[in-house]
């Protein structure tokens, strides 16, 4: 199988999904109204609520939801073969992720930009809201703590990426001023910003930087983790237009340039996919394809974290309601195209099947390393770039996306503490600074609570896939209930949510048995908590849907 076929088939199907399916969903299901006054205008404060150009907002949303996950998940899941990964990424993007992401923005936009967890109280009930908020907190805790470890590891391993990664923050600050002050047009800003980013990438290999291997008893990786959280705390308190929006926007453009380079190299070099279509000789210890494929590949198909971004920050910046189709659904298309690139790099970027098997010798192998290694080979063969520069381009791409997700994740966690303060009448917790300190403190407690290297978040990472997909299912439940109350068709969200919840609960049960067999009682207990939470919220939402259906039936009978 030639990789060109995978590229054309995947991108073609996603394009069709955007131009046809998303248009149907926007017009017939969500019924987007250009006259609706969005919360960005209603509560405009210049900090969190800022009406934003849809292209800039798309950049913020897309890079916030992308992170490293659409690279890691697909590049691990190809161990089952490239066909299952390809089908789930392509179909999941069109029928699951796009509807989920756009739907979460729509639901929040119609409820004063409240997070999907907070508005659950109005849509479903207070008990469901309380459980939902705990699940959301766990997901954000995992994302922030673990992405810090991932970024720190990449900065330690690839020292040529340090200048481009941190230099991008300076570029974003300048671009934010240029856009917000309307000093020069968006097109000019975009071109200058992309040129500046790639100039930094070119400088990176010539000026590698590293922190001291040991400082004040902290390893270089632990030092990076602390620096990342200090940066993320500052970024979460700054107005969104100053750093978050421009950083995400320019990173979104940078990704598309990177994808254009990678896909262009695929067309020129026409690499063969050396990985098997269906791997019947998986390494010992590899779990079953069903249901684990659907929690291993989350971002790139459907991910609960997207609902948090959609309802947490994106909905607060939506200028006009119809913009959410481009921002939300096309944002999912962008992430799907990144996941597709990860599949191609991890299956066609190796010379032989034996080379591929050497990397995928156990479940969990591959990931970012396979993407960087395989993608660098494709860039080198197709465009003639040297390997070091190719690796730097792809490493910076992965780190910048992980960084933007961490920026947004910490801001979202701050919102969660503020919403808890509002729910329980704790005035001090509703303020930005104390809520940010609580968010950073909880992440650092997890990161350093199990040792001094800051990798404590990895302890609960095995549960991220299932908890994250549970969150996606619960978000679809809330959207479905809202549609049912408005007497609109629910099948386009109901069918995806049933599939996601069934696969997630099965995966939780499999993991539960695995943790029991290993005697890992900490993860066993946490898995049990998440499983019970899933069942309780699903029952609450199910009973709400049943009441709505019964009420509709009674009205029809009365009218008859």
TrEMBL record:
GO biological process: cellular response to starvation
Name of the protein this chain belongs to: Carbon starvation protein CstA
Domain of life: Bacteria
Keyword Chaperone: no
Keywords linked to the UniProt accession: Cell membrane, Membrane, Transmembrane, Transmembrane helix
Chief site of localization: membrane
InterPro entries xrefs: CstA, CstA_N
Topology with respect to the bilayer: Multi-pass membrane protein
Organism: Zobellella denitrificans
């Amino acid at each position: 199988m030639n990789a060109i076929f995978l590229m054309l088939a995947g991108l073609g199907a996603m394009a069709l999904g955007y131009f046809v399916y998303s248009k149907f969903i926007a017009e017939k299901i969500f019924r987007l109204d250009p006259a609706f006054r969005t919360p960005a205008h209603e509560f405009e404060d210049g900090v969190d609520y800022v009406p934003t150009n849809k292209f800039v907002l798309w950049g913020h949303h897309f890079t916030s939801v992308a992170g490293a996950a659409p690279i890691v998940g697909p590049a691990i899941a190809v161990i089952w073969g490239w066909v299952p990964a390809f089908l789930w990424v392509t179909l999941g993007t069109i029928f699951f992720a796009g509807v989920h992401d756009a739907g979460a923005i729509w639901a929040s936009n119609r409820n004063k930009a409240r997070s999907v967890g907070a508005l659950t109280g109005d849509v479903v009930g207070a008990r469901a809201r309380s459980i939902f908020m705990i699940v959301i907190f766990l997901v954000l805790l995992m994302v922030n703590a673990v992405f810090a470890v991932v970024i720190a590891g990449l900065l330690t391993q690839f020292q040529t990426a340090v200048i481009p990664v941190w230099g991008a923050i300076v570029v974003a600050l300048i671009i934010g001023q240029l856009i917000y002050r309307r000093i020069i047009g968006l097109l000019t800003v975009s071109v200058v910003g992309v040129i500046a980013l790639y100039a930094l990438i070119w400088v990176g290999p010539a000026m590698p930087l590293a922190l001291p291997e040991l400082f004040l008893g902290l390893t270089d990786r632990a030092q990076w983790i602390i620096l990342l959280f200090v940066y993320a705390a500052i970024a979460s308190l700054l107005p969104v237009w100053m750093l978050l929006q421009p950083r995400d926007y320019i990173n979104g453009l940078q990704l598309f340039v990177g994808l254009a380079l990678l896909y262009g190299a695929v067309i020129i070099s026409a690499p063969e996919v050396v990985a098997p279509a269906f791997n019947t000789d998986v390494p010992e210890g590899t779990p079953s394809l069903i249901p684990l494929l659907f929690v291993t590949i989350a971002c790139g198909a459907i991910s609960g974290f997207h609902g948090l971004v959609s309802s947490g920050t994106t909905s607060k910046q939506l200028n006009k309601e119809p913009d959410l189709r481009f921002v939300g659904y096309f944002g999912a298309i962008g992430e799907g195209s990144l996941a597709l690139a990860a599949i191609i790099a991890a299956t066609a970027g190796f010379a032989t099947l034996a080379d591929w098997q050497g990397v995928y010798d156990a479940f969990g192998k591959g990931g970012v390393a396979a993407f960087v290694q395989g993608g660098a080979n494709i860039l080198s063969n197709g465009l003639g770039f040297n390997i070091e520069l190719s690796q730097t381009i792809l490493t910076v791409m992965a780190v910048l996306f992980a960084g933007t997700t961490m920026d947004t994740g910490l801001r979202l966690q701050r919102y969660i503490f503020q919403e808890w303060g509002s729910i329980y009448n704790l005035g001090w917790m509703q303020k930005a600074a104390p809520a940010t300190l609580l968010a950073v403190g909880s992440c650092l407690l997890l990161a350093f609570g199990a040792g001094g290297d800051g990798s404590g978040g990895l302890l609960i990472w095995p549960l991220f896939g299932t908890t994250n997909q549970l969150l996606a299912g619960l978000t679809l439940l809330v959207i479905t209930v809202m549609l049912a109350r408005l007497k609109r068709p629910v099948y386009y969200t109901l069918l995806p949510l049933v599939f996601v919840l069934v696969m997630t609960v099965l995966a939780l049960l499999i993991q539960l048995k695995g943790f029991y067999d290993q005697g890992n009682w900490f993860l066993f207990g946490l898995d049990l908590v998440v499983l019970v939470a899933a069942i309780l919220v699903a029952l609450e939402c199910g009973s709400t849907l049943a009441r709505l259906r019964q009420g509709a039936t009674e009205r029809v009978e009365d009218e008859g």
